[in-house]
């Protein structure tokens, strides 16, 4: 999305108003509905003034294009500064990552530096890596760039940084070669870099064409898995994803029996947890460090097994992708690294028989290093035990060093952090600034249906494109087809169609089987996976009365194990169980409503709840 796009001449005039910070801020507010902090305004004023001096050379055409804070398609990332123009018939785009840094330290991690931020030192991607990754992402997502042979030239400008042997160290040369870094005395060098590619102005609206051009089909982890297992880099890891990956890799390589480590990585839907996890699994095993990918639910593993069928023997696949109850009797330190995805779903005991001691403790004991990817807002069962403080406490008791990081880069829901915040707001999970769905960073297809039959038809139509649309529901309808395969769980008289719960025919492969759109998914086969479009049927376990979002766990089917024991729990300890049940029900729908990459359609069984959602969309 284009936030600010003008000619060089108009950009220079905006600088001369001495109000460029507020000009950019007003553009961001108008385009996205997001407010900008005072620190960011000062950053705009500082960095953009430096850039204006760089481009003030008269040989840089006055009608070249200047774009600021360009939002990369299908992500939440923004490019600081872009210059567009031509070299003869060749259309060129220069991507510039702007930094106000004055110092950075070298790390032992590929493409990662340590620098000082407002609240202390922190590791982050090298500016050249950032600029290169943004250019790579734009190429990956945008068909116009490729089909119309538009050339991208990334670089970084650290206008306050006095040269040293850190930021330009040979260790980072691979990325600096791809995206040159210019420091405080290098304004003329940056100017020459720009002049090399921008010799005529932008008379063909290059950024407008890119922004409104064709978007390449979204890659899913499942579809890319076969190539990733072979060691191919299918996804560009950006910013915090790169830092988490390199940190986990370093800890895994350094860990031994007397130096065990655990890395806890917090991140919401679509922040790349699974992508980082799979890349880490492949790289560590490539280096001869025995590693396994662990999930509590079987659905992700079933999907991966199906996608990788024929690539490796099933016995080998089942040694790579394992359940969280695998380590009950495992010897200590037998595995180099365990990578636990969806760690919030871990349970204290394993299975219906409640076997073992403690799943987290068993994982920590059996590995030299472990990585827990966790989103506590996706806790959807009363048995879900994987919380950050629990992992920390158990690790410390076992003498294991704890490291913590966060993932914030967003790829789910068309890259809109705003949609995720809006979902949190309308479900009253937490107060956010996103009250208006129309102000999202990117177009995200959200619709409310009064007729469940129309919802089904819409999902069926979307699924005809590429088999990436599914219906899901809260567990408020009996699973009659479990005992009687000819029975329907969602019946004609209520919905206008007959459908069954997904576990009837397709099990964990429901989300990818070409015929499984005929069945309705539940939280257990949707969590941790994604589709392009998701249709969510909201049952009467979540209702709205007088604008307040309430939960009624008694509307859940009696066979629902996610709230098992709630009656006894409320009777014996209501102060614990009431907020827990509210969390479980709300998190269930939050998770279901964020499975879609491109759109979410909903139907509410309760009319007042439907009216509430419609009002919140106005």
Automatic annotation (TrEMBL):
Q: Which residues form the Schlafen group 3-like DNA/RNA helicase domain?
A: 260-606
Q: Which domain of life is it from?
A: Bacteria
Q: What is this protein called?
A: DUF2075 domain-containing protein
**Organism of derivation:** Wenyingzhuangia gilva
């Amino acid at each position: 999305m284009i936030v600010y796009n003008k000619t060089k001449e108009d950009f220079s005039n905006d600088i001369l108003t001495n109000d460029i910070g507020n000009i950019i801020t007003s553009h961001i507010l108008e385009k996205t509905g997001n407010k900008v902090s005072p620190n960011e305004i000062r950053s705009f004023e500082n960095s953009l003034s430096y850039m204006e001096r760089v481009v003030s050379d008269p040989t840089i055409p006055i009608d070249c294009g200047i774009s600021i804070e360009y939002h990369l398609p299908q992500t939440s990332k923004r490019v600081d500064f872009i210059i567009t123009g031509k070299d003869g018939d060749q259309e060129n785009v220069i991507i510039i990552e702007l930094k106000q840094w004055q110092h950075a330290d070298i790390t032992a991690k590929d493409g990662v530096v340590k620098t000082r931020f407002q609240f202390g030192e922190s590791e982050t991607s090298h500016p050249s890596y950032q600029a290169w990754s943004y250019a790579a992402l734009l190429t990956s997502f945008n068909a116009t760039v490729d089909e119309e042979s538009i050339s991208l030239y990334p670089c970084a400008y650290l206008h306050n940084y006095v040269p040293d042997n850190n930021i330009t160290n040979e260790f980072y040369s691979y990325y600096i070669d791809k995206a040159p870094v210019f420091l405080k005395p290098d304004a003329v060098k940056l100017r020459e870099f720009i002049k090399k590619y921008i010799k005529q102005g932008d008379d063909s609206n290059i950024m407008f064409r890119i922004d409104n051009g064709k978007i390449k089909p979204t890659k899913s982890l499942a579809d890319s898995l076969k190539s990733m297992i072979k060691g191919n880099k299918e996804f560009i890891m950006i910013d915090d994803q790169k830092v988490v990956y390199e940190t986990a890799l370093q800890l895994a390589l350094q860990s031994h029996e007397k130096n065990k480590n655990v890395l806890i990585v917090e991140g919401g839907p679509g922040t790349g947890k699974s992508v980082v996890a799979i890349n880490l699994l492949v790289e560590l095993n490539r280096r001869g460090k025995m590693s396994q990918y662990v999930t509590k639910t079987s659905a992700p593993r079933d999907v991966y097994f199906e996608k990788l069928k024929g690539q490796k023997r099933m016995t080998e696949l089942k040694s790579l992708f394992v359940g969280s109850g695998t380590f009950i009797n495992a010897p200590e330190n037998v595995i180099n690294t365990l990578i636990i995805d969806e760690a919030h779903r871990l349970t204290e005991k394993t299975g219906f028989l409640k076997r073992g001691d403690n799943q987290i403790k068993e994982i920590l004991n059996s590995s030299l290093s472990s990585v827990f990817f966790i989103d506590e807002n996706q806790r959807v069962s009363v048995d879900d035990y994987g919380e950050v403080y629990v992992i920390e406490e158990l690790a410390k008791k076992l003498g294991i060093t704890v490291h913590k990081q966060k993932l914030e880069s967003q790829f789910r829901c068309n890259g809109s952090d705003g949609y995720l915040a809006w979902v949190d707001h309308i479900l009253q999970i937490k107060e956010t600034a996103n009250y208006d769905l129309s102000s999202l960073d990117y177009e995200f297809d959200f619709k409310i249906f009064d007729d469940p039959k129309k919802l089904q038809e819409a999902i069926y139509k979307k699924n005809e494109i590429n088999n990436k649309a599914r219906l899901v529901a809260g567990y408020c309808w009996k699973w009659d087809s479990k005992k009687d395969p000819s029975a329907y769980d969602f019946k004609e008289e209520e919905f206008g169609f007959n459908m069954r719960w997904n576990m009837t025919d397709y099990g964990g492969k429901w989300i990818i089987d070409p015929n499984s759109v005929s069945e309705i998914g539940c939280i257990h086969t949707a969590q941790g996976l994604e589709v392009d479009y998701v249709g969510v049927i909201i049952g009467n376990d979540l209702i709205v009365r007088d604008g307040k979002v309430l939960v009624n766990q008694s509307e859940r089917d009696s066979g629902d194990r996610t709230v098992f024991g709630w009656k006894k729990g409320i009777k014996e300890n209501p102060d614990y169980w009431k907020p827990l049940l509210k969390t479980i029900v709300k998190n269930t729908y939050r998770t279901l409503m964020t499975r879609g990459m491109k759109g979410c359609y909903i139907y509410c069984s309760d009319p007042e709840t439907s009216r509430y959602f419609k009002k919140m969309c106005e």
